[in-house]
C-alpha cells in the first residue's frame, strides 16, 4: 500500500443529533485512500463471493447491472471525524448477491482492486444494511470515490465501505484487514466511537 491521500483532518463539531460523537458535518466529499487510485474499467471488473468451501459466485459488470437495483439515501461517517448526511447511492443489495450463497460463516473479508482489505461481520452486510454501489448522486461512481463500484456499509465508519471492491471472502473467524492491522477498531461503530483498538 502507498502513501495515504490528503483529507485526514478534523474540525469542530456542530450540534446535530444526526452526527455521532466526535464528528463534524461536511458538505464536500473528502477523498481518503490508503494507496494509489486503481483504474478499473467495467469490462475488467468482476465481483465474487467465495465461501469457506472454495465455491466462487461470480458476476461480470453486465450481470451485476442486470440484478435488481436499489436507490439508497444514507448518512456516512469517516473515522477522521467528518460526516456527510443524506448521501444518495444506487447499487445492488448484498441480500440479492447472497441469495444463492450457502455458508455457515459469520465473518467476511472484503477485497479490493489495489490490495486493500477490510473485515465486516456477515450480519452487517445482510438485512438491508449494505450494498455494492456504482452510482453517487445520480452519476457513475468516480474512481477517487471507489468506482466503478464500492462496498457501502453506512452504519459503520466509512473505511469499512471498501473502495474498488472486487469480492468478499467468507471466514469462520474474524481477521483484521488493512486498517484493522494498523490499529483501527475491528468493528467500527461510529455511535460508539470505535475508532481504534
- Domain count: the total is 1
Helix fraction, binned, reads: under 10%
Low-confidence stretches: 3-13
CATH level 4 superfamily: Oxidoreductase, molybdopterin-binding domain
Structural class: mainly beta
Number of helices: 3
What coarse outline follows from CA principal-axis ratios? globular
Topology record:
Elements: E1 24-25, E2 46-50, E3 56-60, H1 61-65, E4 70-77, E5 82-93, H2 94-97, E6 107-112, E7 117-121, E8 131-136, E9 139-140, E10 150-152, E11 165-171, H3 178-181
Parallel strand pairs: 1-5, 2-11
Antiparallel strand pairs: 2-3, 4-5, 5-8, 6-7, 6-11, 8-9, 8-10
Descriptive report:
Helix content is 7%, strand content 31%. It has three helices and eleven strands. The protein is mainly β and 197 residues long. Mean pLDDT is 93; it is low at 3-13.
Main traits of this protein?
single chain; 197 residues; mainly beta; 11 strands; 31% strand; globular
In short:
By secondary structure, this protein is mainly beta. It has helices at residues 61-65, 94-97, 178-181, and strands at residues 24-25, 46-50, 56-60, 70-77, 82-93, 107-112, 117-121, 131-136, 139-140, 150-152, 165-171.
